[in-house]
Specification:
The protein is built from nine helices and eight strands. With 242 residues, the protein is α/β, with parallel strands linked by helices. It has a single domain (3-234), classed as TIM Barrel. It has an eight-stranded parallel β-barrel with strand order 1-2-3-4-5-6-7-8, surrounded by six helices. Helix 1 (11-19) packs parallel to helix 2 (40-50), helix 3 (67-79) crosses helix 4 and helix 4 crosses helix 5.
Amino acid sequence: MTHFLASVRNAAEAECVLAAGADIVDLKEPDEGALGAVAPSVVRACLRTIGGRKPVSATVGDLPMNPAVVTDAVAATAELGVDTVKLGILVGGDPWGCFEVLGSLGTPADLVLVFFGDMPTDIDPVEAARASGANGVMLDTAGKERGSLTDHMTLGEIGRFVDRAHHAGLQVGLAGSLRPHHVQPLLGLRPDVIGFRGALCEQSARGSNLDPNACAEIGRLVAAGGTATEARFEAHATSAVW
């Protein structure tokens, strides 16, 4: 089954996406970049509101690939109590140094590495996940004004990313300015997670307030394209999805 990830910036938005059927609540501040981090106080408030009903992920911000900066941010976010921490892999810096330190960090949260379809890199996602101890990898877009994931990668390229990660035992997520018409083609690639922000908002503007009707539409589309719920996901509301 492909799970519906909804990115929210506060507790009120978390409640809205839960009502729309979100499987994962992702904490992110859209005004701070592609993977902008919310404040620790917001994370705590959202965790209180969600109350273990669904898994919670959180981004650490658009960070330079500096081992000390990255590991401090990942550790601090994990210690807040989220289920999964998402780290964007940006061009430049010392990514392999980051992966090496992360691999020995040992946090209570799972780690997902986010690669950007509009920011090509020669870093191998599977090898990066192995080195860092990540449970999953994700495709997203860094420049939200430059179109969706499918404007930068073909379905064939995205499908190969999904298949290779699955063969390595990794969970896979897809996101990147996705709209309702992207749901069915991408579900056909069998990702574990499909993520949205802009499509859930008023006028499809990612920095705007959520539109409950838009949230419900995405929830229905993802649910209609899913398969039988996996037993491991049913077992506990906060079980790792990635």
